[in-house]
Specification:
The chain is 57% helix and 6% strand. α4 crosses α8, α4 packs parallel to α16 and α12 crosses α15. The structure holds tryptophan.
Length: 362
């Protein structure tokens, strides 16, 4: 069986360093591993509309932004198909058939949907399109016969629901769809990077992110004003490295080479942490080091982004071609789905013959 990757993002804003360590970096490694036959990344604009119906302009403005972030991080369009969800109408068609295999109460029990309903204040009036977006996500995944779906932990309920739909479809109509597996980030630090303010999550609405597109100066300013250990008041005070986002970011980004290059008095992060815990190590010093590490990491990404920002027609061509290829695959699967259900009337010569015979016998 072919090994196929599908994953996606809602185009609701530029991507930040949490996205980078949590998923983009891994996607690039998977892409370059040579272990996969087909790779798709979906810009989930239709899904983004399920909770942004009143603001399509936000989606419209962020499609290219997100592609720029992909290309900047090393997504290579000759290996990975980047495509736009709404331009593949077969995904909507599949969703409509799959909806019959899912109950409303099952959707209401989906933990991610539940959380998001609370977060968005939808409790008393859930948009129907929002409630069913897990089914549309199942269409995204199965249309490409994806075997592997690299996602964050918050997306596990979506993969579960997809598996149930695949099982139900195959049982009801015959073996057609492929059951996907989620691929989670290996490293817990990377799967959820805290915000600059110490909040558990880096999120646009909290304004506590470092974006991949931030300038050198902005990154430096953000890092120098980061939340650290509130009990570490004087340099000589012993400090805490847990729940201290400066150290969490170092856990996620710094390598031993960074010590050789920027802080040679320490061999590695363990030594730096030991010193901080004992006392005698100031926040300014570790922030300056973190800034060096982040500039080292984001610098090359920003450079690539700047290149693509000046070549938007090429970016347009990349997603146009990616979308065309994705659509061909989705059409093929949709044809198989309709054949399995026996509703492919115009591709199935037997259907009309059977209808005639039925009346001949009467
Ligand atoms: N729900 C995902 C998110 O919010 C985006 C997404 C849409 C996706 N379709 C997908 C992820 C298919 C993986 C597979 O981040």
């Amino acid at each position: 069986m072919k090994k196929i990757i599908l994953t996606g993002d809602r185009p609701t804003g530029r991507l930040h360093i949490g996205h980078y360590v949590g998923s983009l970096k891994k996607r690039v490694e998977l892409q370059n591993s040579g272990n996969y036959d087909e790779i798709y990344i979906e810009i989930a604009d239709a899904q983004a509309l399920t909770d942004n119906a009143d603001n399509p302009e936000k989606i419209r403005q962020n499609v290219i932004e997100i592609v720029l972030d992909y290309l900047a991080c090393g997504i290579d369009p000759s290996k990975t198909n980047i495509f736009v969800q709404s331009a593949v109408p077969e995904l909507t068609e599949l969703t409509f058939y799959y909806l019959n295999l899912v109950t409303v109460s099952r959707l209401e029990r989906n933990p991610t949907v539940k959380d998001e309903i609370k977060l968005r204040g939808f409790q008393t009036s859930i948009p129907a399109g929002f409630l069913i977006y897990p089914v549309s996500q199942a269409a995204d995944i199965t249309a490409f016969k994806a075997t592997t779906v690299p996602v964050g932990e918050d997306q596990l309920p979506m993969i579960e629901q997809t598996k149930e739909i695949v099982k139900s479809f195959n049982n009801t109509y015959g073996n057609t769809l492929v059951k996907p597996e989620a691929l989670l980030p290996e490293n817990e630090t990377c799967s959820r990077l805290p915000g600059l303010d110490g909040n558990a999550k880096m999120s646009k609405s909290l304004g506590n992110c470092i974006y991949l597109s931030d300038s050198k100066e902005v990154i430096e300013k953000k890092i120098m004003s980061m939340f650290t250990d509130p009990t570490h008041l004087k340099i000589s005070d012993p400090g805490h490295t847990e729940n201290n986002p400066v150290f969490t970011y170092l856990d996620a980004f710094c390598k031993d080479e960074h010590f050789t290059k920027y802080l040679p008095e320490y061999k590695n992060l363990d030594e730096l942490k030991d010193h901080y815990r004992k006392g005698g190590l100031g926040d300014m010093k570790i922030k300056r080091f973190l800034n060096d590490v982040m500039q080292d990491t984001i610098g090359p990404i920003r450079e690539k982004r700047n290149y693509w920002e000046k070549h938007i027609p090429e970016v347009y061509q990349i997603i146009k071609e990616g979308t065309n290829k994705a659509r061909q695959k989705a059409i093929q699967t949709t044809n198989e789905v309709k054949a399995a259900m026996g509703i492919n009337y115009f591709e199935d010569e037997n259907w009309i013959k059977e209808q005639q015979e039925k009346f001949n016998q009467e």
